[in-house]
User: Which sequence fits this backbone?
């Protein structure tokens, strides 16, 4: 998609999995990518790889759950690139614990990263987009936040359901500034988060039985839809949540 040439894209949680695939896809499409993550361990190799491929990319370390860290990062991105055209809220955590056993810290951290983080980044970047006359925001949700819950993931499900609500209300308010906001809700994707469960043959069999396309998704499946929603071809789409799940949830 050459139309992303010189557009500035901020991707949170770009150090691995879906975020890494999204950052790479935008880089390949000619965008200037501001890649964010919490630590340099995963992020720096991604940025180095993108630069080696001739793509414009820079690393920005920040905890998206911190207001001051987010504001500082957004200002650094704007100083480095001059503007921000696209924000992809991808950073997320997924603690595995039953409702009765979950620690309060896990609950608070999950809501802070998965829901407060997108609020803070959308607010800060949204102000930049409003000043420059427009932009696009895509929130990475989950089918767990739609009609399909997940056992022993109460905090994760709550955060992703909240993210859908935030997406809709952000779309309503920011439309006045020519800013579109949508959500992409992946199903079971082959990432680090699902690696352990993918080693369980019984679990894999259950997943494949529930997915009409009879395969798990890959990060590039999600990245493809994100790029479409950020393109001019999606100029009349806002406030929506799209599933990328092989047909697992149809609604």
Assistant:
């Amino acid at each position: 998609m050459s139309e992303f040439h010189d557009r500035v894209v901020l991707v949170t949680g770009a150090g691995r999995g879906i975020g890494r695939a999204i950052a790479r896809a935008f880089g390949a499409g000619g965008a200037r990518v501001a890649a964010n993550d919490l630590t340099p361990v995963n992020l720096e190799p991604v940025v180095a790889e993108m630069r080696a491929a001739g793509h414009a990319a820079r690393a920005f370390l920040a905890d998206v759950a911190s207001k001051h860290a987010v504001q500082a990062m957004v200002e650094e991105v704007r100083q480095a690139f001059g503007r921000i055209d696209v924000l992809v809220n991808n950073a997320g955590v997924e603690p595995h614990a039953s409702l009765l056993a979950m620690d309060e810290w896990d609950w608070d951290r999950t809501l802070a990263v998965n829901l407060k983080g997108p609020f803070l980044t959308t607010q800060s970047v949204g102000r930049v987009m409003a000043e420059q006359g427009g932009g696009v925001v895509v929130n990475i949700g989950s089918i767990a936040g739609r009609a399909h819950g997940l056992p022993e993931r109460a905090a994760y499900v709550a955060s992703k359901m909240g993210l859908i609500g935030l997406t809709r209300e952000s779309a309503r308010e920011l439309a006045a500034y020519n800013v579109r906001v949508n959500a992409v809700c992946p199903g079971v994707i082959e990432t680090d988060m699902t690696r352990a469960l993918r080693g369980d043959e019984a679990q894999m069999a259950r997943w494949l039985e529930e997915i009409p396309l009879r395969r798990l998704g890959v990060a590039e499946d999600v990245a493809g839809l994100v790029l479409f929603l950020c393109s001019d071809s999606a100029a009349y789409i806002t406030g929506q949540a799209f599933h990328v799940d092989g047909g697992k949830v149809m609604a």
